[in-house]
Amino acid sequence: MKDYIKPLAWEGEELHLLDQRELPLVEKIFIAKSIEDGHFAIKEMVVRGAPLIGFTALWTMILWLSKNENPSMGDLEKSVEYLKTARPTAVNLEYELNRTFEMAKEFYDANNSLVGFVDKLTVFANEQMDKLHNDNQTMAKIAEGDLLKKVGDQKYNIMTICNTGYLACGPMGTALGVIAHLHENNKIKKAYPSETRPYLQGIRLTSYEMTKLGIPHDIVVEGSSSYLMKNNMVDAIYAGADRIAVNGDTANKIGTSTLSLVAKHYDVPFYIVAPLSSFDLDCESGSKIPIELRDQNEILFCKGQRLAPEGATAFNPSFDITDAENITGIICEKGLISPVTKENLLKVVNS
Ligand code: MRU
Fold first, then answer.
1. Residue 135: Cβ within 10 Å count
2. pTM, full prediction
3. Is 242 assigned a catalytic role?
4. Structure confidence at residue 71 (pLDDT)
5. Are 215 and 206 contacting, i.e. CB atoms less than 8 angstroms apart?
6. Cβ-Cβ contacts under 8 Å for 221 (sequence gap 6 or more)
7. Which listed residue (135, 242, 280, 320) is catalytic?
8. What are 200-256's pLDDT values in tens digits?
9. What residues flank ligand 1, with Cβ below 6 Å?
10. For residue 3, is pLDDT > 80?
11. Is 145 exposed, middle or buried (0-12, 13-18, 19+ CB in 10 A)?
12. How far apart are CA 229 and CA 318, in angstroms?
């Protein structure tokens, strides 16, 4: 890919993060030198997207360990719990931090100290990022095979929401990974990334990635989904996930649920593409998923310019729940879950 800047890189004991708040106009690196910087980067969306949030937490723990050579298990636990507070909805954050804690416990039990654990965690973090790259490729191939069966052998018009590419994952991407893979195989007629109000991940980040990849696309506003589908302009929709409950209900960027309802109405296949790190098998349904409420100023202002009248207020839930019954299929690295039921989900996830 042309001019590819990694969204996360470990450079000389510092964490270098491509500052996604500034994209697409400015490509600036945010340098995290402490656990507080890592927490800030996740909370303030220097980095965002469920898998990348998880990886940033993992690398922030590496950063912390590299500055605290011989911490106690109690101090490590405090750091893990502190990072978990950065954002609530994407389960990948807890998933990576819980794995870190379990590995640390095992290491401590075997060595009676955490000296040297940083090296083990660094190897693990690199392996997991490589694994996600392979898993994303697997998911893209599963999606391609299913689309061929459902829609036929043709070039496709695909709609998506938010940003689910390498900026959200580190390597490759989930829903946007599917679109990139189809494009590589000359199978994309046109992609429709929705602008994704209010934070504009679609117009700023997805279009940035699509432009670099040469994917033909038109940015659309969320409200155009019914127009596009009524006029047969969409063959399938792919979205990512921040947390998938065991019954298949899925939390993703606000507007995803609306998209699924319109898709159901017009009989357009609607898919969630997400790695196993986005599944929360302890969560029985979408009603139990914590939804992040973000600052009202993300709606009231645009690039520092007030849009709403003085005194007006806004309500800004950042995610919504797409009901399992409105999802044609969930694609993970283990396969396709369709129809989306608890039984089918557990069968695929545990295979
Ligand atoms: O608030 P964000 O930008 O972190 O929200 C991201 C999304 O909702 C993505 O669609 C989701 O994390 C999947 S990323 C592969």
1. 24
2. 0.96
3. yes
4. 96
5. no
6. 194, 195, 197
7. 242
8. 999 999 999 999 999 999 999 999 999 999 999 999 999 999 999 999 999 999 999
9. 48-51, 90, 162, 164, 168-169, 174, 201, 240-242, 252-253, 318
10. no
11. exposed
12. 24
Q: Alpha-carbon torsion 50, 128, 140, 276, what sign? A: negative
Residue nearest to atom 6 of ligand 1 (CA): 49
Angle, helices 35-43 vs 73-84, to 10°: value is 20
253's enclosing H/E stretch is strand 250-253
Which ligand 1 atom sits nearest the alpha carbon of residue 274? 15
Strands (E), 185-235: 188-193
Alpha-carbon distance of 26 to 7, in angstroms, equals: 14
Query: What backbone phi and psi angles, to 5 degrees, belong to 215?
Result: -85, 125
- Phi/psi region, residue 273 (left: phi>0; alpha: psi -120 to 50; beta: rest), is beta
CA of 311 to the centre of ligand 1 (A): 30
Are the CB atoms for 91 and 52 separated by under 8 Å? no
- Give the model confidence (pLDDT) of 289-308 as tens digits: 999 999 999 999 998 999 99
Q: Which atom of ligand 1 is nearest to the CA of 175?
A: 15
- Give the type of residue at 230: K
Q: Is residue 273 within 8 Å of residue 331, measured between CB atoms?
A: yes
The CA distance from 25 to 160, in Å, is 22
